[in-house]
């Protein structure tokens, strides 16, 4: 009894309730995807024959771990942050040795009854490590060196993830830019990132010479409008010309170079598909004979068709839900297995079909409330460590939720990112449980100053 | 404050994302309705459950039209890739080549996607099913056999009456829009199948199913809340005697003509033979389209139901009715005599007569004296009681209508024709107002000229006589299981009793008709032990202005007391009636009244008559012409299309059918032509083989056609 008092002291119940609500909705959705009329539910659960049964088990394990985390001392996390980060990186490297191939990526470590995906778990360690680094008194986040070190902390796992063919998961690590921004990363980086994104998109969409002319035009206009300032200060002209040079070189050389040499062809194609552009690999760079090229082209076509099929089916399922939905277990698309990977990445489609616009909006609103609550929690921390960590949690959730749902409604490319707490999968559920409950634990000790 | 503003920016980012996603969901789920349509299309399936069509029983309860099951060979093209399909074996069994195989697979994929089963070959013949079953293990799972209900005619007879089913077309769908037909459904096209479509089809059931991503039906939608059960079609009981029908068809082989036998007490049709006819089973099986084209192209027009759809002058059978009118009008008595000196001179130009002599009514009917009946009708038409020829012809017309002539009788067989009875209008048109009198149309008195009847009307006329003054509309169907919900049989329960003619008048006419059988023109039809009344007829006729051999008619009822059968037999171009029509009628009557024909010489007569070939040579010429059309190229093919159109028009078929089958037929014939162009007679033989099986077995005829062709060459 004494311990219980300690556990519950200072705990943020709103977060815990929201956590339970999401896991329950997730379980119901996985159930609706798999259940077919006349099945023996109890037998399936006992025998762990179905995904919803396994998810229930994962939930049980998660609950145990959550309680365990709540029982630990907050200081443990600050103390082990760097070691755990090193452990995470080690796990990621281990996948190259003992990795198991699932869906074309060797990012899984088989652990008997379930497979661990280190990229997922590594998010926790990265969040801790980033929090640890930023909370150190000697860190001055205004200077470039600290910024570079922070960037290295978040980009190392991302790099490994790309090497494992999991580009989508690597992108999540860019979420850490948000806590970094909160801690003083100059907004110029965010705007540079934003402009860079626009430039890349423009490079994909607009023919390269046209784009060069447009950029030159913009530069010329800038010079014209700023001619008076330029007269006073030649430096501005140099900045404008420098920016122009940079943009054109990115557009003409950097992006094509990245597409050709850094990214895999299928990744490029995914990116292109999102914008509705047909991707034709440059013939000069590939030294394949024509026969092999044809083969590849054919392969690509079927792959592309499969991806378009995913998105189309996902949109049909969500769109057919209407305002009020078809009712639980009554969705024809869900019951007919039309949406591939519906229990994992496309779990949101079953919400959309079964519960319609009101149901899916409610889920979105709940997620937003969840994130805002975490931001609120973050802001009430006294220690930088807790604040950075809480912001990291909010940022990861934000990234996952927005990309996953945008993917199901056709606003983002299909990259394998789960919907937090709802998608089927032990790795994902455990990761988010740990992530959230460490935050809850830290929050319970918000009066303490942790370093 | 610096930190506060950054926090707010982050919150703004989160909210912005939420707004964007909710807005997107709103457009996707609320504004855009196309997704729910797409979802319904792929996730729901409306399965139509076809009930069994009703069965038709003859008067003794034997099923003559029922349902049977045949098989379609189905293919799921997507499954071929994974298996080691023995394409060659399959092609051998189906008798196709690999290019055809590939073509069909491709069509299946285009039409129905590769993961859905589609028909590779439908309505397989029995032999193919057996051979497929033996080696089916080689072809699964890409191929499987699927049951399919079809109509079956256990006696393979009465095709013209029963009719056939065919796929509904757009105009049918438009006309029957409220009855739930869909594209691909079958409906009765001709015969009883058409007349009783409403009752026979039953009620379709509809089941709503959920469908999964592999297009498999998984479960009833909402546990079958929207489903409706199928109700099988009602069975029909016919007045037809299938034994009598088959005897009739057998007797009429090698002849063009018709037999109609009616039970005078009920109006029920006992037999209705139109010759040449076709085997109805030909239009149900796998070769349906091919056979259909063959039957349509046959110059003998097997599709026409001559009993209701062909016109014949009634000839001397008409005289019985003239006698009735004369007696009823009081212009003659049974003892009135007219002298026949070899011709009728009443109108200046003599009208020939066969047996000179002085006849009373009985004698005149017995020897079929033209002069007598010309005089009778002259008295009727020139009766001063009515003032003018015009009004007296109207009186005569009313008698005709009362006897069931000049109008459709209303039998439950589609495409019945009304016949023609001359009216004052007819002659006003022909000769100008008032420029005509009895002498203008005197030949009508002996059933020639401007009078046309259908065989059914003649048989009905006999039923009217047999009943002494009334008849019930002839009909095929006596009762419907489960009651006559649509009132289809109401008109077959009324007695038509239009005139009040006394029994003595009928007896007087019967005396004459019995005389025909005892010692007159119908002596050939006499059946020992049965007293019957009959009348022969010999009808002059012309084809494209050329006088043809006379049609032989015979009409009778029997027995004289308490008659049970009224019959009309017509053999086209048979010459004098005594050799064909009369004996056919006599055999039919004996068969019906005694249930069987036992005497050996009578049995032999059946075969003799059946073999008697009365097909006119112009038909063989037409067959030859048809074949030459099939042989030559496109221009004549177009002519042929026109030919088929006129055929269809004449049969009252309301539309298309099976142009595809015609194409096929033409193609196969052309292939044969190109195979051996050198040996002409052999080629002809092949074509004849091609057309022959659509008809009743008439082997000797084929030989005759060949010999004919050879002589022409």
Kindly summarize this structure in a few lines.
The complex is a heterodimer of chains A (451) and B (713). Chain A is mostly helical.
Topology diagram in text:
The complex is a heterodimer of chains A (451) and B (713).
Chain A: H1 2-8, H2 13-34, H3 41-46, H4 51-71, H5 74-98, E1 100-102, E2 105-111, E3 114-116, H6 118-135, H7 144-163, H8 167-172, H9 177-182, H10 187-205, H11 208-225, H12 227-232, H13 234-262, H14 265-274, H15 290-319, H16 332-335, H17 347-379, H18 384-408, H19 426-444
Antiparallel strand pairs in A: 1-2, 2-3
Chain B: H1 2-31, H2 34-43, E1 44-49, E2 56-57, E3 63-75, H3 87-94, H4 98-112, E4 118-121, H5 126-134, E5 143-152, H6 159-162, E6 165-167, H7 170-175, E7 186-188, H8 191-195, H9 197-200, E8 205-211, E9 217-220, E10 236-238, H10 242-251, E11 257-262, E12 269-275, H11 288-297, H12 306-309, H13 319-329, E13 338-340, E14 343-344, E15 351-352, E16 357-359, H14 361-367, H15 370-381, H16 389-402, H17 424-431, H18 455-466, E17 471-472, E18 477-480, E19 495-496, H19 503-519, E20 533-543, E21 546-558, E22 565-571, H20 581-594, H21 600-611, H22 617-631, H23 634-651, H24 659-675, H25 680-691, H26 699-712
Parallel strand pairs in B: 2-10
Antiparallel strand pairs in B: 1-8, 2-3, 3-4, 3-5, 6-7, 8-9, 10-18, 11-12, 11-22, 13-16, 14-15, 17-19, 20-21, 21-22
Q: Roughly what is the average pLDDT of chain A, rounded to an integer?
A: 81
Structural class by secondary-structure content of chain B? alpha+beta
What CATH architecture of the largest domain in chain B would you give?
Answer: 3-Layer(aba) Sandwich
Number of helix segments of chain B?
26
State the helical fraction of chain B.
40-55%
Number of helices of chain A: 19
Low-confidence stretches of chain A: 282-288
**Rg of chain B from C-alpha positions?**
33 Å
What would you call the shape of chain B?
Answer: elongated
The largest sheet of chain B is: 6 strands, mixed
Greatest contact pair?
A: A-B, 44 and 38 residues
